[in-house]
Amino acid sequence: MRFNNFLMRLGLILAIGISLLLSWKIWTNNSHYERQTDSQTTQKTPTRNADHQLADTFLPTQVLWRQTDQSELLYNSKENIVTQLKKTLKKTQIAAFKKVKLNETRYGQQLKTDKTVTLLYPDDVTYGILKEVFSYQGTNRGGIKNNATFNRIQITLGSKTADLWLLNDRTKVGYQAELTGFSKQKIKELVNASDVHLKVEEQFLNHKPLMYVAANQQLAPYSYLVNQQPENYYISSLLNQQNTDSINTKEQGDSAIYTDGTDSEQYKRLTIDHKTGEISFIKYEDVAVPKTTTKQFETSFDALLKTGNSLAGMRYYSHDEKTDTTTFRTYVEGFPVFYQTNFGSVKVQLLPTGQRVDFSNYSLQVPVPAEDHQVTLDSTESVLNQLTQNGFLLEDVDNIQVGYEWTKESDNDQVIDLNPTYFIQYQGTWRSLSALLALKTELTEGS
């Protein structure tokens, strides 16, 4: 009897000891335990972007129509105009290109050619990318190389023929070719079907043509449900998919830092900010930075795909040759979304030691009913006047454009509001008009 009691007590003590040991291991390595549990229910290889092609992300972002000395930004909420123009262009025949170097005056005149439709890129792309986007095969069609850059595809509709111009706002270089089989009737149909006609005018600021919005133009605000993936989703897709035991975890402030590997050629680090949803992924590998801009675009797009986030509405936005960095942004109704992150929606930097990808855990899902009213925009001219009146130097304005400001609703963190406003790139940094003016106020008050 006494021996049985002894065994029972001994068993109870051992059970309590094992329980305490297991609890200690869970408490001291909680993130690792969660990874193992969640990884069983998370797909190791995201498939949501399997059908998304480079041509979808590198489509032009806006369509400009000019007739009788008036330019309009067009958008159709029911039918994607850019996609329709792409289909029309794919049916055409392009003659050999002729390179044309224009001065600023002549370039401005080309932009104001009557009866033209222009597909706009927010920054330079290459002819190599254009061939992928529009499925142009075979030769370079004479007079133009794959690494030639441009940010406008302008189609001039003459009485008998149509001409294709690839124009670069920065270098003022154009490539001209005759188009055969282009449907002018299709252009009329697209213009008439558009439900947004934003009156604009191209004017030069600091030797660069910018799109000046006329007074009293209106845009609609929007609201969207947002999606947020669990952290384990990115751990399994970006770090070691075969062996999560090799992943180390530590908390630092509001962020969790996950690392995999110790070899400098295979080391990976994933940093997730719990508070802002911003994510940074760094991968070290013995791969040289691609020498051509086209290859850099393709490599950056591959990195964008590997994040596993939804790419609906995601478009190429800019490329920095000095840092080998390509930025992608979400577009809504033909306008870019700002403040989804501090650095843009997704920023891919190709490094001599690998690559770095900065992006957001949040992505737009489905629109929800918003207030049924239009927001009236000030003219671009009046915005620039407001800047000068507040002490800003126009020579430091790199760019100015209308976009949507991403703000969370105070009573529902699953819904974000998108409100149209002006964004100014001042001394290299993008800020909304209100944020830029507030910054000036802070500097003045602090002086």
From TrEMBL:
Residues 12-440 form the Regulatory protein YycH domain. Pfam families: YycH. It comes from the Bacteria. CDD domains: YycH_N. Gene3D superfamilies: 3.10.450.310. This is YycH family protein. It comes from Latilactobacillus fuchuensis. The lineage of its organism: Bacteria, Bacillati, Bacillota, Bacilli, Lactobacillales.
